[in-house]
């Protein structure tokens, strides 16, 4: 059996461990699913009418605002799940299970890849629930089957990138509390982009930040695929950002995990 | 003399809570920062889109920040509920209250220490919020009397909701559940007229938003600070505060008595 096969088997075992964890302690998953849904309902029913009429062309009423906001909520679901990953990684690191794993004949990277793939599955579940609730409140995308596949691909890629980043954040945290606070900025980034309102309505300096931060091209790509709005170069930027974030997250996580645990 | 003892003990417990705020500033910092972050986010990021909603009101000078700040002030008691519930629950589960019970400490002083400590924290938080609001263009038209009335209503609101929070903290089995239990109340300021007028909401939501406790309080604060019409909101706001305060106080004291004498 090759090293690669061992790594794959061990990763599958760790993935199974993470999925079982989710099933046995569902409160975290429920929280992660609940948060984007609450924000969706809040922005559609409480702010939707006002934002819809205030955005003129971009929205024009609550029904059109639902179509505008759902891609942003999808991204929020991904950010929320990523935050959950940081917490579960920190729990593993602080509760001593990793020290046990280190003494066993397990591929070192499998512990992290188990977390990553588990989180990607959880992300997909979160996004699926958010979109389902979106449909219930009036979300009406006009995407074809190919475009839906592209949406799924974009969501998986984003989830993969954010998860590697938050795995590293979980590893760098000294406590579970710190791990729950460190990725908070990821939850805020969709607000500071085009997820909830078009960037044109923002003052100059903020508009500039909103247009160039990673979540905006991802949101615009998802919106373009689902609603047929113009994507431009957003897709290339979105994929670029995802690759960069995933690469940095992976390298950082690997470096942190390889450290001597006694240090 | 027992009233004097109770007062002295309450001051001691208040001092204990203030020392704790200083030693573990994370929660206090969050209570100060969250409303400020929300204000900056709503004004700068959503303000351009939301400005149209308040355009007609001359008292607000066409600036969304003037509409927003009185509503955002109520985020402070809403978020305060969580921190008070968690700290009361921590005290109950970590055994410190049992230690206090073996000493000659007035039982009510333990809760009063939490309540008054939270009120001081809320006052600091609202001061910070208004200071930042003034920096970004908030221009209240209130005179001295209106400012005093607004401060009084805010203190009353905090007092009421903190007693309710103490009840949540005493009812919870663990600090984790204490932090989750008040979530519906924490969401109430969003589901009212605090951030956007209720006219833009669909019928069912609008009805809920108009009749929930935070809306009349927000409208009264807005009226006092910005000179918008208050109508009967002032009376309704005070009634809600008294009602919530009484329920919270009775719930807290009876639960505390039951848990500490068992």
TrEMBL record, chain A:
Does this UniProt record's set of keywords contain Transmembrane helix? yes
Q: Could you cite one Gene Ontology molecular function of this protein?
A: ABC-type transporter activity
Is DNA damage one of the keywords?
no
Keywords linked to the UniProt accession? Antibiotic resistance, Cell membrane, Membrane, Transmembrane, Transmembrane helix, Transport
Q: How does it sit in the membrane?
A: Multi-pass membrane protein
Question: GO CC annotations?
Answer: ATP-binding cassette (ABC) transporter complex
* Superkingdom, taxonomy of origin: Bacteria
BP term (GO), one: response to antibiotic
Pfam families per record: ABC2_membrane
Q: Which InterPro entries match?
A: ABC2_TM, ABC2_TM_bact-type, ABC_2_transport, Nod_factor_ABC_transporter
Which ranges of the sequence are coiled-coil?
Answer: none
Where's the ABC transmembrane type-2 domain?
27-256
Q: Where in the cell is it found?
A: Cell membrane; Membrane
TM stretches of this protein: 25-48, 68-91, 112-136, 148-172, 184-210, 230-253
Q: Which family does it belong to?
A: Belongs to the ABC-2 integral membrane protein family.
Q: What is this protein called?
A: Transport permease protein
| Organism from which the protein derives | Antrihabitans cavernicola
UniProtKB/TrEMBL annotation, chain B:
Biological process, per Gene Ontology = response to antibiotic
Which sequence ranges are marked TM in the entry?
A: 24-47, 67-89, 110-138, 144-171, 224-251
Annotated InterPro entries: ABC2_TM, ABC2_TM_bact-type, ABC_2_transport, Nod_factor_ABC_transporter
Give the PROSITE patterns listed for this entry.
ABC_TM2
Q: Which GO terms describe its cellular component?
A: ATP-binding cassette (ABC) transporter complex
Q: Name one GO molecular function term.
A: ABC-type transporter activity
Where does the record place the ABC transmembrane type-2 domain? 26-259
Which UniProt keywords are given for this protein, alphabetically ordered?
Antibiotic resistance, Cell membrane, Membrane, Transmembrane, Transmembrane helix, Transport
Q: Which family does it belong to?
A: Belongs to the ABC-2 integral membrane protein family.
Instruction: State the compartments where it is located.
Output: Cell membrane; Membrane
What's the protein name?
Transport permease protein
The membrane topology noted for this protein in its Swiss-Prot or TrEMBL record is: Multi-pass membrane protein
């Amino acid at each position: 059996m090759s090293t690669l096969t061992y790594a794959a088997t061990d990763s599958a075992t760790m993935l199974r461990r993470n999925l079982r964890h989710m099933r046995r302690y569902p409160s975290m998953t429920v929280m992660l699913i609940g948060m984007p849904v609450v924000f969706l309902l809040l922005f559609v029913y409480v702010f939707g009418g006002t934002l819809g009429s205030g955005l003129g062309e971009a929205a024009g009423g609550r029904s059109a605002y639902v179509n505008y906001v759902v891609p942003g909520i999808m991204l929020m679901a991904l950010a929320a799940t990523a935050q959950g990953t940081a917490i579960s990684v920190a729990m593993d690191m602080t509760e001593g299970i990793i020290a046990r794993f280190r003494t066993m004949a397990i591929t070192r990277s499998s512990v992290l890849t188990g977390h990553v793939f588990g989180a990607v599955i959880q992300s997909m579940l979160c996004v699926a629930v958010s979109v389902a609730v979106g449909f219930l409140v009036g979300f009406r995308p006009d995407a074809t089957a190919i475009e839906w596949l592209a949406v799924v691909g974009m969501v998986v890629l984003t989830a993969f990138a954010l998860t590697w980043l938050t795995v590293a954040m979980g590893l760098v945290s000294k406590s579970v509390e710190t791990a729950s606070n460190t990725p908070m900025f990821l939850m805020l980034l969709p607000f500071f982009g085009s997820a909830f309102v078009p960037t044109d309505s923002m003052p100059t300096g903020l508009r500039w930040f909103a247009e160039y931060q990673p979540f905006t091209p991802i949101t615009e790509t998802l919106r373009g695929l689902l609603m047929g709005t113009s994507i431009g170069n957003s897709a290339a930027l979105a994929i670029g950002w995802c690759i960069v974030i995933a690469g940095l997250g992976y390298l950082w996580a690997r470096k942190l995990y390889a450290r001597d645990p006694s240090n | 003399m027992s009233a004097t003892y109770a007062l002295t003990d309450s001051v001691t417990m208040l001092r204990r809570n203030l020392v704790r705020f200083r030693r573990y500033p994370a929660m206090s910092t969050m209570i100060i920062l969250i409303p400020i972050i929300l204000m900056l986010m709503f004004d700068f990021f959503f303000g351009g889109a939301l400005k149209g909603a308040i355009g007609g009101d001359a008292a607000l000078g066409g600036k969304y920040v003037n509409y927003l700040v009185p509503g955002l002030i109520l985020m402070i008691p809403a978020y305060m509920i969580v921190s008070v519930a968690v700290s009361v629950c921590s005290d109950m589960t970590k055994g410190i209250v049992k230690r206090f019970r073996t000493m000659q400490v007035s039982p009510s002083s333990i809760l009063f220490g939490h309540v008054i400590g939270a009120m001081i924290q809320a006052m600091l938080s609202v001061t910070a919020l208004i200071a930042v609001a003034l920096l970004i263009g908030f221009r209240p038209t209130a005179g001295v009397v209106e400012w005093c009335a607004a401060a009084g209503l805010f203190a009353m609101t905090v007092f009421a909701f903190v007693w309710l929070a103490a009840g949540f903290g005493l009812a919870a089995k663990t600090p984790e559940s204490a932090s989750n239990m008040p979530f519906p109340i924490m969401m109430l300021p969003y589901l009212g007229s605090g951030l956007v007028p209720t006219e833009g909401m669909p019928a069912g939501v609008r009805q809920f938003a108009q009749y929930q406790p935070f809306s009349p309080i927000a409208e009264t604060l807005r009226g006092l600070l910005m000179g918008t019409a208050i109508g009967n909101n002032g009376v309704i706001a005070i009634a809600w505060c008294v009602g919530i305060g009484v329920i919270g106080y009775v719930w807290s004291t009876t639960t505390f008595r039951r848990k500490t004498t068992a």
